[in-house]
Write a structure and sequence with these properties.
Layout (H helix, E strand, L loop, with lengths): L3 E6 L8 E8 L2 E18 L12 E16 L2 E18 L6 H11 L4 H22 L5
Antiparallel strand pairs: 1-3, 2-3, 3-4, 4-5
Length: about 140
């Protein structure tokens, strides 16, 4: 059976995590905002059993953390999406469509303390952001 992949941008019951940094650059101070969202992938596995036989249906899910960066600069806004794959994963018996609500709770529980991960991605992005600012240069603002 070919696995069915379903994508879902999760609007789960977790608090949004936002992080703000200031980078001093030769073109002037740049304020960057980072906002986290969780992207969940579902994969339907197994088959429904015929009458009297057990079903082998399972829904496997994986959650990625996506942090959207918007850096305000005199020349415009520099945007980027940073991704950390597989921050949480799990499996539930049955159909993916029937398990969406409980999977959303599983994801929210597994990703409730992600502030440190968001801040780490922002620190990793600092050099990339500086390189983008250098390409803009002082004469292009």
């Amino acid at each position: 059976m070919i696995p069915l992949i379903l994508g879902l941008l999760l609007a789960a019951p977790f608090s949004e995590i936002a992080h703000r940094v200031r980078i001093d650059h030769e073109t002037g101070p740049v304020h960057a905002d980072y906002r986290m969202r969780i992207d969940v992938r579902h994969q339907q596995l197994g088959t429904a059993g015929p009458g009297g036989r057990a079903s082998t249906l399972r829904c496997r899910w994986e959650a990625d953390m996506v942090v959207d960066r918007q850096a305000r600069h005199p020349a415009g806004t520099l945007q980027r999406a940073l991704r950390q794959e597989r921050v949480a994963a799990g499996s539930r018996p049955g159909w993916c469509t029937a398990n969406r609500a409980v999977i959303a709770k599983d994801v929210a529980s597994a990703t409730k303390d992600m502030r440190g991960a968001v801040e780490a991605l922002a620190r990793q992005d600092a050099e990339t952001l500086r390189a983008e600012l250098d390409r803009i240069g002082p004469g292009n603002s």
